Amino acid sequence: MLMNQNANSLVLTSLSIPQLRDIFRDEIESYFNKNPVNLGDNREDILGIEEAAEYIKLAIPTIHVLSSKKQIPVIKKGKKLLFSKTDLTAWLMQGRKLTLSEIQKDAERLVPIL
Predict the structure, then answer these.
(1) For 50-101, what is each residue's pLDDT tens digit?
(2) Which end of the chain is more exposed for a tag (fewer CB within 10 A), N or C?
(3) 81 has which bridge partners?
(4) What is the sign, positive or negative, of the torsion defined by CA atoms of 47, 88, 61, 96?
């Protein structure tokens, strides 16, 4: 139970501290899996279209189409298309499907068992 400045009682949740920690840990892990942190300026992280096609296992024409439709993260310098490996990885992970255990964890987190 938490107290606000008016000394009125306010119950925020019936979850225990360990349950709240697990929820926060899962949310933080999920955020960083979806939004990788680039810890340095590494030129090896920048790929040309051929390298990008090989990395994400798509044909070069498909990458051109996705780029023109603004459906894939791209850096355009003149006529040259460049790709951040980190951005491509994050883009791929956006299409990741949850496992049954992840879905069950989310359901339990959203509807706690009393």
Answers:
(1) 999 999 999 999 999 999 999 999 999 988 999 999 999 999 998 888 889 8
(2) C
(3) 76
(4) positive
Query: For every residue of 52-95, which 3-state class applies, written as one string?
Result: HHHHHCCCHHHHHHHHHCCCCCCEEECCEEEEEHHHHHHHHHCC
Domain map (residue ranges) of the chain: 2-110
* Averaged pLDDT score across all residues of the chain: 82
C-alpha 27/C-alpha 23 separation (Å) is 6
CB 4 within 8 A of CB 12: no
How far is 90 from 80, CA to CA, in rounded Å? 22
Task: List C-alpha distances in Å: 53 to 45, 70, 87, 113.
Answer: 14, 16, 14, 46
Grouping H, G, I as helix, E, B as strand and the rest as coil, residue 26 is: helix
Nearest in space to 114 (alpha carbons), one of 10, 19, 1: 19
pLDDT bin (cut points 50, 70, 90) of residue 20 is confident
